[in-house]
Write a structure and sequence with these properties.
Structural class: mainly beta
Helix content: under 10%
Strand content: 25-35%
Distance between the termini: 27 Å
Strand order of the largest sheet: 1-13-3-11-7-6
Number of strands: 13
Largest sheet: 6 strands, antiparallel
C-alpha cells in the first residue's frame, strides 16, 4: 500500500513474513508502531529496543522488542543506517476530517490503529524509520534531513504475529518532532509491503 504524506495504514503481519518500508521519494520518514498479544495489549517499545540492543541505533541483525521484552521484528536489510527511536509524534491541534493536509503524524497513526480495531487513549513512541536525529553535546535534540534517497528501503522480518501501523510522517512545527528542515517540503510517498519470506529461520534460501 502506498501512503501519501500524513496518511497512515494498518497491516496484519504473521511471524516469518517480511515487512518492507520504501521511501519512494527520498527524504521521507515512516513512523511505525506495532501491537501483539491477546487484545493487542503488547506494544513495540523503543526503550526496550534500545536497552536490549545496548544501542540508540538500528542495523542489520538488530531486533525490535516489545514492552514485554519479547522480540517482535529483526532488521534484515538496512542500507540507510539512520533511524530514530527517541522522539514521539504529538497530537497537535484538532483537525477536521476534510483537512487531511493538516493531519499530524500522531493522528494518522491513531486513525489507522482505530480503523484496525485498536482503541487506546495514547500511542507508544514510534520507530521513525529514516528520521535523522542528532543528540548534541548538552543533550539537545536536533532533527536533520534524512539520509534516505529515492527507493531506499528497510526490510524487517516479523518474529511474532502482530498488527503494525505505519504513517508517512509530516513536517510539524514543534521542536524535536519535525521531519527535517528542507528535503521534504513536498511530501513524497511511502510504500509498505508485507510478504512471505523466501528464507527459512536459518537464513538459507528455501525452495
Amino acid at each position: 500500500r502506498q501512503l501519501a504524506g500524513g496518511e497512515g495504514g494498518a497491516f496484519e503481519v504473521k511471524a516469518g513474513q517480511l515487512v518492507q518500508i520504501i521511501d519512494l521519494h527520498g527524504g521521507q520518514v515512516a513512523s511505525m508502531v506495532a501491537f501483539a498479544g491477546r487484545g493487542r495489549n503488547e506494544t513495540l517499545s523503543t526503550s526496550a529496543t534500545m536497552t536490549l540492543n545496548a544501542s540508540l541505533t538500528l542495523k542489520a541483525g538488530s531486533q525490535l522488542y516489545s514492552d514485554a521484552c519479547e522480540p517482535m521484528f529483526e532488521v534484515v536489510e538496512d542500507p540507510v543506517g539512520r533511524h530514530d527511536m527517541l522522539t514521539m509524534a504529538t497530537p497537535g491541534e484538532a483537525k477536521t476530517a476534510t483537512a487531511k493536509e493538516l493531519v499530524t503524524t500522531w493522528q494518522a497513526l491513531r486513525d489507522a490503529a482505530e480503523g484496525a480495531g485498536i482503541f487506546r487513549p495514547g500511542l507508544p513512541t514510534p520507530v521513525n524509520f529514516f528520521k535523522h536525529v542528532v543528540v548534541k553535546q548538552r543533550g539537545e535534540i536536533e532533527v536533520r534531513d534524512p539520509f534516505s534517497e529515492r527507493n531506499d528501503a528497510i526490510l524487517l522480518r516479523a518474529l511474532k504475529d502482530s498488527m503494525i501501523v505505519v504513517a508517512n510522517a509530516r513536517k510539524e512545527k514543534k521542536p524535536g518532532i519535525s521531519v527535517g528542515p528542507g528535503r521534504n517540503e513536498t511530501p513524497g510517498t511511502i510504500l509498505v509491503r508485507v510478504y512471505k519470506s523466501i528464507f527459512p529461520e536459518n537464513g538459507q534460501a528455501g525452495s
